[in-house]
Amino acid sequence: MLISPADSLMVRDIDSSSWQVSSFLEFDGIPEDCFTGTSLHLSFTDYHIPIFQTNSRGQKDSQISIWEAVISIRDSGVWVADVDILRALSDGPIYRIQPQKECNHPKDSVPSKPLLSVGCWNDVLDHQDGRLVVKAHGNWIARLAATVLLAQNSKRPATRISICPPHVCWMCLPQDHEHNVFIY
After folding, report:
1. Which of 66, 87, 158, 168 is 20 to 30 A off residue 4, Cα-Cα?
2. Domain residue ranges in the chain
3. 6 vs 68: CA distance, rounded Å
């Protein structure tokens, strides 16, 4: 059985000398994946507890062990954060946007209200308050990593995280929440 660390998980500090400058440009409505180097890695800590059954005799191995496991987000091999996916998905302010019905608006239209674009991990870690779009279109690993990190980042937690379907008409999408991060 795998368990997550009981203490708060770690997030890297923002590297101000990085070539990835936080830009927060206005979202143009075009679906793209800016997180192609994102990966999730499972590793184990030294915390291990074998659980023995008292009624079994003569066995050399324990039937169940508890191992502490950490899931890390990496960007092209560089560590970004350690996250607890199950805790974030069960406790986080995460909402799933249902697929929309066909409309007459042009595809890739710009949102009716301006949204800021997030295209690198520094932007995710140091996101501004307001309406944002994380551009990880079609990359389920990056979408999961960004969602979980935004839900449990103790430095800057997101107020509301909305998971977008593959195709979104930004003109029809309700954008009522003041502090909403769209994972697109």
Report:
1. 158
2. 2-8+23-183
3. 9
